[in-house]
Structure formats: structure tokens, C-alpha cells
Amino acid sequence: MVPINIIYEAHIEFFQAQLLEWYAKNGRNFLWRNKSATNYELIISEIFLQRTKAETVYKFLPQFFKKYSTWKLLGEATEEELKEIIQPLGLYNQRGERLYKLAQEIKIRNGRFPRERNQVEDLPMMGQYITNAYELYILKKKAPLLDVNMARLLERFFGERKMADIRHDPYLQTLAYRVVNVEKSKELNWAVLDFAALICKKRQPKCESCLLVKTCIYGRLNYC
Predict the structure, then answer these.
(1) pTM, 2 dp
(2) What is the Cα 101 distance to its own chain's centre?
(3) Which CATH architecture best describes the domain 4-28+143-222?
(4) End-to-end CA distance of the chain, in Å?
(5) Which of 51, 74, 137, 210 has the fewest CB atoms found within 10 Å of its own CB?
(6) What CATH code is assigned to 31-137?
(7) Domain ranges of the chain
(8) CA distance 1 to 146
(9) pLDDT 10s digits, 184-213
(10) For residue 94, what pLDDT band results from cuts at 50, 70 and 90?
């Protein structure tokens, strides 16, 4: 692991600039990335993106939002109805139960999320990743969408973490916040996720076509 205090700002700035330029030409187009997406659509999309491929969620969302287009309508659904409609995504019993509990919590709050991070993170289905998404999309803060995909790209480029759980690794958490601390924080988050999905894959990464390969720790060791 490279100590976080000796990852130079110029190195991070190079990473940011390259990813944003790549994203402008190659970024994926999803419903939740449209400017017209509501706060409700953004949060629900991120909830379903957990442990499900983006392409699968993209195909599923239109029918879900057609039936449940607001927190109010979602709060009126029964647990069994939610389990049934999200069945194509898998894990529907667990997800349906937790989505129902979240909808009931928001219903009690008249469709409003709390503003304090610790209170948001305590809501059903939220956790660190979705709370970061809430801060990024709704509160307009520079928060990282740090999942296993973002972690993979950051670690290959900058150096590996020590702890197994990315939620508690101080090196990776600090690095992720430093990386997305740009004016276009939202776009950079999407750039990292797309690059990890299309180029820096878990298996057989496309180092031969990677614009970062000559400055990437993993690329220099395994490809250059």
C-alpha cells in the first residue's frame, strides 16, 4: 500500500483529468444519469444497483417507476407487492422486505429524508454507499460512490488497501474523497464506475487500451 500522505496531488489531478476526458466520449447513458431524474429516481436506482449489473437495472426501472413513481405511491405498496415486482433483480425477499421498511420510514416523514448523515445512514437499505449517493445527488456534496468497482480501479492505479472491508479502510476512504473532490464530482464518480466496468475489469482488464496504463501501478507491473 502506498501511504496516503505521499500520493501527490499532481498524480490525483492526472487521474481526474484523464477519466473525465474519457467519460465525455465513452460514458454510459442510464436513466438515473438524465438531468430530468428526480431525487426519488436517483435514490431508488442506486438501491437497485447494489449487487446488480447496471444494464439489468436499466432495463427493469421503467416498469418499476411506471407503477411506483413517487415515495407516496411506494409507501402505499404492500411488502408482497414489492417482492413480486422486483423479483427479476434477484434477492427479492430480502430486498422487498427492506424496501418496504424504507418506504414506510419515508412515508412517516412525509416523503422527506433527514438531512444529517448519521440519520440517513440508519435508514433501511441506505448504508454507507447509498448515503454517499444521497449526499452526492441530493445535497450536492463531493462524496464518492465507493463500491468494489471503484475500489478496484483506485487500488490498481494508486496502491492497495490493507483492510478487507472497503467501508472501514482509512486509506481507501481518504483516497476516494480526494479523487472526487472536483467541480464535476458527479461526472467523475460515473467516469470511475464506467471505466472500471468497461476497461479496468475484475478479470482480464484491457490494459492494452487503457489511457492510464503507463502511470498505473498495476499496469506497470503486469503489462508495461
Answers:
(1) 0.91
(2) 22
(3) Orthogonal Bundle (1.10)
(4) 20
(5) 51
(6) 1.10.340.30
(7) 4-28+143-222, 31-137
(8) 18
(9) 999 999 999 999 999 999 999 999 999 999
(10) confident
Are 52 and 80 contacting, i.e. CB atoms less than 8 angstroms apart? no
Q: Are 197 and 53 in contact (CB under 8 A)?
A: no
Q: Confidence band (pLDDT; 50, 70, 90) for 2? A: low
Using an 8 Å Cβ cutoff, are 60 and 89 in contact? yes
Q: Are 117 and 30 in contact (CB under 8 A)?
A: no
DSSP single-letter state for residue 139:
S
Give, in order, the Cα–Cα distances in Å from 5 to each of 1, 65, 87, 189, 216: 11, 45, 45, 22, 18
**Which amino acid makes up residue 48?**
F
Encode pLDDT of 5-36 as tens digits: 678 899 999 999 999 999 999 999 999 999 99
Q: Is 217 exposed, middle or buried (0-12, 13-18, 19+ CB in 10 A)?
A: middle
- Please give the single-letter amino acid code of residue 19: L
The angle that helices 39-49 and 127-137 make with each other, rounded to 10 degrees, is 150
For residues 165 and 63, what is the distance between their CA atoms, to the nearest angstrom?
A: 34
Give the position of cell 413517487. Answer: 70
Query: What's the grid cell of residue 21?
Result: 476526458
